Amino acid sequence: MQVSETLAEGLKRELKVVIPATDLATRLDEYLNDMKSKVNINGFRPGKVPVAHLKRLHGRQAMGELIGNLINETTTKTIEERKEKPALQPEIDLSDDDAEKVLAGEADLAYTISYEVLPKFDIVDFSTIELERPIVEISEDEVDEQVKQIAESNRPFEAREDGAAAEDGDRVTMHYLGKLDGEPFEGGEDENGQLVLGSGQFIPGFEEQVVGMKVGGKKVIDVTFPEEYGAANLAGRAVTFDIDVKGIEAPGDVSIDDEMATKLGLESLEKLKEIVRGQIESQFGAATRQKVKRELLDKLDAEYTFELPEKLLETEFDGVWKQVEADMQQAGKTFEDEKTTEEEAKVEYRKISERRVRLGLVLSEVGEQNKVQVTDEEVQKALFDRVRQFPGQEQQVFEFYKNNEQALASLRAPIYEEKVVDFILELAKVSDKVVSKDELLAQDEDEA
């Protein structure tokens, strides 16, 4: 086998590989010798088929299989010997003009390997990175407010007397049917919908028009969906709802005590507060994690400037752009609505793609150098978490991931990233900074 480098420009590499026809012929004979003990051909005893006869019958097909295997084998070996790491799967170019002669054993096998190598860069000293970790101190008032909301959501209700009209605070059970331009719209019907009047759970103007209705009462009400409503086909649209009241219940008293906690399956009010505090800490802890991770990635992004593999970048950008187009189509918006143009948006999202690729390469290199590993148990847990998101389709989703290496890798990747981030944070200088809840939960304007 002869290998010659035909291109070494930046990260791009191109190699020409030539395997002499004599080598192919030797390998073909070995292949057919192995085959003759496995095939049954009329007129010949098992293992006694002449190689020449096999070559006439199966030579072309065998040579095709042999070439495919040989290209994979030699490509991997060639790149390994060069101690290079391709950014993506190398591309193989085998001239169609020579293919017939190669298959017939009349020409050398010559093909080109094209790929981009991963860039080389030095890892910074993470102990020089200084970060502020925003934390919220959870007050008793915060816990008490959450407990109050839990108590309110579990408030008892009792049926109102016959003929009573619904008032603010009452829980109304009703059948409602929403219509747009006189036609029912998806998601606009509930046979036994429950609504606490005055809670603000429904579209503005809906609850006020139910006040005063009685059991058995029917009514058509007019409301308008908010401009920012999630469903594009309903945002800002005027609709009607056919209302049929089935029941009206008056609110009972709420007591925040051990008895209330017992009804929730807990031994005491103190235990309920302990659980609530833990939930708040978990919520704020996740937000703190995201903030400090974002700050770390920003600092790493500022530390590194190196050439990116073009095809890796294009692959990332294509994925990002497809998601942008899908999101805009779902929201029913145009670039004009976002006060930009498609060209300007592409420039911005290309910058985002470059950042993602660069940071991905940095984190990957850090993880590899420091032997960060994702265990099978961690992937299994992520898989089960994913499966639970599809009730009724668990088995199909499980089989999809189990039989799809790329899909399984998509579960492993974020776990690996988080473990590498943890590794860096252990080495960086991280100081805590007390902030308000609003400051912690505020979204960064340029977050992506």
From TrEMBL:
Protein EC: 5.2.1.8
Family: Belongs to the FKBP-type PPIase family. Tig subfamily.
Localization terms from the record: Cytoplasm
Chemical reaction(s) catalysed: [protein]-peptidylproline (omega=180) = [protein]-peptidylproline (omega=0)
Keywords (A to Z) from UniProt: Cell cycle, Cell division, Chaperone, Cytoplasm, Isomerase, Rotamase
Biological processes per GO annotation: 'de novo' cotranslational protein folding; cell division; protein transport; protein unfolding
Organism of origin: Pseudovibrio axinellae
HAMAP family: Trigger_factor_Tig (MF_00303)
Keyword presence, Cell division: yes
Protein name, UniProt field: Trigger factor
InterPro entries in alphabetical order: PPIase_dom_sf (IPR046357), PPIase_FKBP_dom (IPR001179), Trig_fac (IPR005215), Trigger_fac_C (IPR008880), Trigger_fac_C_sf (IPR037041), Trigger_fac_ribosome-bd_bac (IPR008881), Trigger_fac_ribosome-bd_sf (IPR036611), Trigger_fact/SurA_dom_sf (IPR027304)
NCBIfam families: tig (TIGR00115)
CC per GO annotation: cytoplasm
Function field: Involved in protein export. Acts as a chaperone by maintaining the newly synthesized protein in an open conformation. Functions as a peptidyl-prolyl cis-trans isomerase.
Origin organism lineage: Bacteria, Pseudomonadati, Pseudomonadota, Alphaproteobacteria, Hyphomicrobiales
One annotated GO molecular function: ribosome binding
Domain remark from Swiss-Prot or TrEMBL: Consists of 3 domains; the N-terminus binds the ribosome, the middle domain has PPIase activity, while the C-terminus has intrinsic chaperone activity on its own.
Domain PPIase FKBP-type: 169-270
Any one Pfam family match given in the protein's UniProt record, by short name: Trigger_C
UniProt entry tagged with the keyword Chaperone: yes
